[in-house]
Specification:
Number of strands: 7
CATH class: Alpha Beta
CATH architecture: 3-Layer(aba) Sandwich
Strand order of the largest sheet: 3-2-1-4-5-7-6
Structural class: alpha/beta
Largest sheet: 7 strands, mixed
Distance between the termini: 41 Å
Bound molecules: S-adenosylmethionine
Strand content: 15-25%
């Protein structure tokens, strides 16, 4: 996706620092304190323009949502959606998720959502895929034992790769759906990319998975 440079982005993010949290590492282990409640924390990685996270926050007011998006020119749109929605259960982080363990303590996160992650089709870029084993290690550490990863994509190759990656890591697959929209799942909140690809008639794949074993750190 080509994204227009927005020269005002830094200033806008600073102005909205109660939503897009600067120096996220300072809140490691204390995110619930920042929300001012003890609700579960659901994390979305690669939040994009924020349609999913604001939709989820509205649907589930008893959950705290945190979205991580590395591109400041994109996250500004998500910030604006949070402001407009007036939802108090959403915070955003403008960082690369490769440093997740520096931002979250062990067991701090209850679920992780990966929506239409960049496919990085070249094998030399495999390590950048959000379902590569080094990312799974991080997810395992920050997530509770019962925690679930929900992964949606339109990209068949990335979906197949990810199913193998989850299985090789020892994760258990709870659900594998090859055409999500046929299900008419009322709990499904549609993302920007999902809307775009399904309008083109492309099937949407979804997988739910969990680590299903004693955590490595135990
Ligand atoms: N989730 C949105 C959706 O479904 O509409 C956006 C999908 S877009 C293809 C992927 C997004 O993930 C981009 O905005 C990109 O900047 C972000 N992203 C990719 N790798 C990331 C990483 N390592 N950490 C944080 N964000 C990342």
């Amino acid at each position: 996706m080509r994204v227009r440079h927005k020269p005002w982005a830094d200033e806008f993010l600073e102005e909205n620092s109660q939503i897009v949290i600067p120096s996220a590492t300072q809140h490691k282990g204390n995110w619930r304190q920042l929300f001012g409640n003890d609700q579960p924390i659901f994390l979305e990685i690669g939040t994009g323009k924020g349609q999913f996270i604001t939709g989820m926050a509205k649907q589930y007011p008893n959950i705290n949502f945190i979205g991580i998006e590395l591109n400041k020119n994109i996250i500004v749109d998500a910030v604006q959606k949070v402001v407009d929605s007036e939802q108090r259960n959403v915070r955003l982080i403008n960082e690369n998720a490769k440093d997740l363990r520096e931002m979250f303590g062990d067991d701090e996160v209850n679920s992780i959502f990966l929506n239409f992650s960049d496919p990085w089709p070249k094998s030399r870029h495999e390590k950048r895929r959000l379902t590569f084993s080094s990312f799974l290690e991080q997810y395992e550490q920050v997530m509770t034992e019962q925690g679930e990863i929900v992964f949606k994509t339109d990209n068949k190759s990335l979906f197949e790769y990810s199913l193998v990656s989850f299985s090789q890591y020892g994760m258990e697959l709870d659900e594998v759906v090859l055409d999500l929209h046929v299900l008419n799942d009322p709990t499904n909140v549609v993302t920007e990319y999902e809307e775009k690809f399904s309008l083109k008639g492309q099937p949407i794949y979804r997988c739910k998975t969990h680590f299903g074993r004693i955590k490595k750190s135990d």
